[in-house]
Amino acid sequence: MNARAERRAWIFGTTAPALVFLLVIAYLPIAYAVMLSFFKKTAFNPAMTWVGLANYRYILEEPELWNAFWRSVVFTLGAVGLQLVWGLLSALLLNRAFRGLNFVRSLFVLPYLLPSIVVALVFQWLLSQEYGVVNQVLMQTGVVTRPINFFGGLATAMWSVIGMAGWQYGSFATLLILARLQAINPKLYEAAAVSGAGTLRAFWDVTLPNLRTTLIVIALLRGIWMFNKFDSIWLVTHGGPLKATETLPLYAYRLAFEEFDFGLAAAACTVMFVVLLAGAVVYFKLFDPTREIEVGR
Amino acid sequence: MSRLRAYGPFALLLVVLVLVAFPFYWMVLTSFTPREALFRPPYRFVRLDLSLGNYRELLFATEFVRYFANSLIAAVGAIVLNVIAATLAGYGLTRFAFPGKKTFAFGTLFSYMFPPMLMAIPLYILFSALKMRNTYTGLILAHMAISLPLNIWLMWQYFQIVPPSLEEAAWVSGASRLRALGQVCLPSARPGILSVAIFSFALSWNDFTFAFLLQTDRKMFTLPVGLATFVEQTGVHWGMVMAAAVLVSVPTFLLVFFLQRYLLSGLRTAG
């Protein structure tokens, strides 16, 4: 074998497995969903009938898709906003040298890496109407007179889900922000102090500009993920009560597995994909993370 | 006022720490609380009448062990395939120049953003046709869809800090490329490979969506899917549910407290 052929064989042999897996298991299903969205296909009938844009016409004219879309927006803005506020606040508080910082760091990684099922079960238990310890404390301190039905109440379900997502993912934002805070040159603060800036002024002029990129990355990536979050929401509310927490992925799930219409579900999936694509384009335009690879380290 | 300035941040810090830590504390405490006590609120925040009854019931009166085994099989399969595919790709992408690399980078990162539900619905239909639902192979493949993009990215970055000069030295002394890869390059890439294994494990272990859609046969349930059924019955046995939550979290605790240095490189990538 000559050197050129050998080189080719190496390139092919090393990259092909990853490429094939990515194409078959990630890209093919999405392509299939897009294709399926132009067909009538139900769970009981293996036949597929071309219906053109009928599925889109149906779901785009129904208020349900739009309701789900706006719930996704509310959930995303709420959860991401909470994560940023919580992350920023707790990172600022933690940004000092103290014994046990390493332990605290580990503690803050935990919620992020915990299976969603664990977080969902623990929050259902903490916030249970009958036996929840949160209601117990609220009652004992006289904040409320009747226990709150956090995940089951029309007015509270969405906020409770947002709070849970904030807890699970917010503490990880803390760590990212903290790492960035500790990389800020202390001379900048000295300079600010010399020119007479108070704590607030220094925060505004030094801290925030330095955190800008980190905050934008968190907001964008988290936004993309929260918009399409299924497991956390499904596990605690199943989209209820009365669809109050039925976001887009839960809507797509319902179309596929409760109404057994795969064509409609595929159309809903395609709508999700378009939103994802828009987010990804913004992210890649702003950051081009692939540059890192070419420049190397 | 000056006292507020001095102690205010510490008081706030304490509140933050309690908010993060309390759910864990309550989960563990509940799991050791006898069943009778859990039906009689109000609860005490500290208690000493602890028991292992919930754990005993979980292990001997439910399918927990079976779910555990299923989860473990899926995770091990995902680890093996991820390590092979990601390591090879990382090596190839850093050691050779060829057209299409940038597209590959974009394609990898983009697929990292794909939400499980978007892939799970079409996979359900495809796997139904292929008779791959309720199989380990199907679930392992599905789990690769969530972990492989991140892992390719990790190894791509990792092989850049393994200097090619090490391998070149081996070639000079007569080793073939394959031998140099196996004996020089892979050992120096070991921390990266370990990170890949950890992430493959965690993402597979944590997955609910794929397993929920694809594994509909009770015998094939993974832990997250099995545990979700525990709270769907009436009269939820919270002590036992929390015992299950504790046991499912044990691997996560071990990873975070013992292998954190391997986690951090990946978490930075994960954003």
Please describe the structure with a list of short key phrases separated by commas or semicolons.
heterodimer; A: 297 residues; mainly alpha; MetI-like fold; 2 domains; two-stranded antiparallel ribbon; 13 helices; 2 strands; B: 271 residues; globular
- Class derived from helix and strand content of chain A: mainly alpha
Largest interface: A-B, 94 and 95 residues
Largest sheet of chain A: 2 strands, antiparallel
CATH topology of chain B: MetI-like fold
Number of domains of chain B: 1
Q: Roughly how many Å apart are the termini of chain B?
A: 39 Å
For the terminal residues of chain A, how far apart are their CA atoms? 34 Å
Beta-strand fraction estimate of chain B: under 5%
Characterize this entry briefly.
With 297 residues, chain A is mainly α. Chain A is 73% helix and 1% strand. Chain A folds into 2 domains: 1-34, no CATH class; 62-295, MetI-like fold, CATH 1.10.3720.10.
Q: Can you describe what's shown?
A:
The complex is a heterodimer of chains A (297) and B (271). Chain A has 2 domains: 34 residues, no CATH class; 234 residues, MetI-like (MetI-like fold, Orthogonal Bundle), CATH 1.10.3720.10. Helices cover 73% and strands 1% of the residues of chain A. Chain A is built from 13 helices and 2 strands. Chain A has a two-stranded antiparallel ribbon. The longest helix of chain A is centred in the first third of the chain and has 34 residues. The mean pLDDT of chain A is 89. Chain B has a single domain, classed as MetI-like (MetI-like fold). In chain B, 77% of the residues lie in helices and 0% in strands. Chain B is built from 14 helices and no strands. In chain B, helix 1 packs across helix 13, helix 7 packs antiparallel against helix 10 and helix 12 runs antiparallel to helix 13. The chains are: A mainly alpha (297), B mainly alpha (271). The interface between A and B is large, with 94 and 95 residues.
